[in-house]
Known about the structure:
Oligomer: single chain
Distance between the termini: 11 Å
Radius of gyration: 17 Å
Strand content: 15-25%
Amino acid sequence: MANPTLRDFVGEKVWHDLLERAFDRWHPARTVLMRQGEPGTHVLAVRSGVAKVLRAERNGELTVLAFRGHGELLGEIAVIGGGGRLAGVETLTRACVAVINKPDFLRFVTEHDLSPALTRYALARLSESDRARSCGDVLQRLAAVLVHVAEISRDPADGGGDADRGHEPIELALTRQELAQYLRTSRNTVTAHLGALAAHGVRAGRGRVVVADLPALRRVAVALES
C-alpha cells in the first residue's frame, strides 16, 4: 500500500549523503514552505512531519496534488528544469525539512548519477496521482489516501507502520476540504463517505480525521491495487 519515496529509490546511503549536504529547519503546522511560481532556488528533503502539495488552477480553485512525508523530496522539478515552481507546499503537521541549495543539489545529482532514479520517482508520483483520481469508487480512494497519510504520519524514529501497532489510533491533520481537493470531489461527498468509513475505525472531527484501525481501513482500500 505504501507509495515509494525518493529514499526508497536511491537507498539509505545516498539519502543520508544528501542530508549531510543540507541544513535542517523546523516548521509548525500550516506553514508555507514553497510558493507556486517562485524560482527553484533549493530543494527540501522531508525528515519528519507531513506536508501537502497544492496548485492554484486558472479558474481560482485549489487542487491538492499530493501528501508527502519522511523520505520525500520537494521542489526538485523547478530546480532541475528551471522556471517557476509548478505548485506550492504547506505543512500539515510540525515538520523538519533539510534544505539543499540548487548548486549543491545539481552537483549531487551528477556525482551520484541520480537522473534515472529521479525519473522513476517522478513516474511513481504520476501513477499515485492517477490512482487517487481515477481508480475505484470514492469510498475506496478515500480509504487509500487516509491509509497513505496515516503511514507517513508515523514517526520514522519509531519504525513507521509496525504491524503490532496497527490498531493504535492515528490522528491525521486533514480537513474535509483538503480531502475533497485531493480526490476532486465535493466536500459533502467526502463527509458522506467518512461517515461510511466509521464502521472501519474512522472518526472525523473538526480539522482532523482519526484512524483507529489501520488494518481494517487497508482492507477497504485494497481494491485499488487489484
